[in-house]
Write a structure and sequence with these properties.
With 291 residues, the chain is mainly α. Helices cover 71% and strands 0% of the residues. It is found in: Cell membrane.
Length: 291
């Protein structure tokens, strides 16, 4: 009985692990710093215009719900529903294009044997360092000659040509970790390269494909510059372009509605990320892209 009491007392007096406590406190502080801009955006979307400019307080003095009513009315006689549909159409098309084309290109580099495979793969990787602005003017000239300016094709069509070298590299790294015995068994059963790709390799590459889909969706949704170059008509604007048009149309008195529309534009990204977060972590952990 005495031994049990002594053991319990010893466990109760276990000293605090200060290193672990400091690590958790540091992570919590970093989390608060990273979440502060989001909290500020949400709070500012409910502030009156005079508080946005004059007050430094995080919480609004009065809740201005009319900011969201104004934001939902849209800009330039275009409703926020139409703007949201345009954004989803472009982002969805980019996701489908990148997943299909980048997975096919990655399968060729990772599993097939052909002449000049090494130099071509190195050239493809080198394009990651090529600035986007260096190819923007030639691409604009090509699409203008094809009559595709002020349409969604310049924003979607390049994604079907495996132009995103980063995603090709990511999927290649994932495919290289898959056992070749699976393909050999499929080949014995009479499967060719395309059948092996769609029936064997593609299902096993799901984490990398979902990682590609998530990053493509986020980057395309937030892409302001490219959409500004190719889209002119207000009825074809996305939510990203509508923010700029909203400020231009309403001047400095519409800060509250502008931030309210920013919150609306942010919601699809947050929901998309939360829905596929588990696959994102799995894909990054298994594809060789580790921090």
């Amino acid at each position: 009985m005495t031994t049990t009491t002594t053991t319990s007392t010893t466990v109760a007096r276990k000293p605090l692990d200060w290193r672990r406590f400091a690590l958790h406190a540091g992570c919590l502080a970093a989390l608060l710093v990273m979440l502060y801009p989001l909290a500020w955006l949400l709070a500012t979307s409910l502030k009156p215009a005079n508080e946005v400019i004059a007050s430094l307080d995080l919480l609004p003095g009065t809740l201005e719900w009319s900011n969201y009513e104004t934001a939902l009315d849209g800009v330039n006689d275009v409703s926020v529903t139409r703007l949201l549909t345009n954004s989803l159409l472009i982002a969805g098309g980019a996701v489908v294009g990148n997943v299909i084309s980048c997975s096919l290109a990655a399968y060729a580099f990772a599993r097939l044997r052909f002449r000049f495979r090494g130099p071509l793969f190195a050239f493809m990787i080198a394009t990651i360092m090529l600035p986007h602005h260096a190819v923007l003017i030639p691409q604009y000239i090509i699409f203008n000659q094809l009559g595709m300016v002020n349409t969604y094709w310049p924003l979607i069509l390049p994604k079907f040509l495996a132009t995103e070298a980063f995603f090709v590299f990511l999927i290649v790294q994932f495919m290289r970790g898959l056992p070749r015995e699976l393909e050999e068994a499929a080949r014995i059963d009479g499967c060719g390269p395309f059948r092996s790709f769609f029936s064997v390799i593609l299902p096993l590459t799901r984490p990398a494909l979902i990682t590609t889909a998530i990053f493509t969706f986020i980057w395309t949704w937030n892409d302001f510059f490219t959409q500004l170059i190719y889209l002119f008509s207000p009825e074809k604007f996305t939510l990203t372009l509508a923010l700029r048009a909203f400020v231009d149309a309403s001047s400095t008195s519409a800060f509250g509605p502008m931030f309210a529309m920013s919150v609306i534009a942010l919601l699809p990204i947050v929901l998309f990320f939360l829905a596929f977060q588990r696959f994102l972590v799995e894909g990054m952990a298994n594809s060789g892209i580790k921090g």
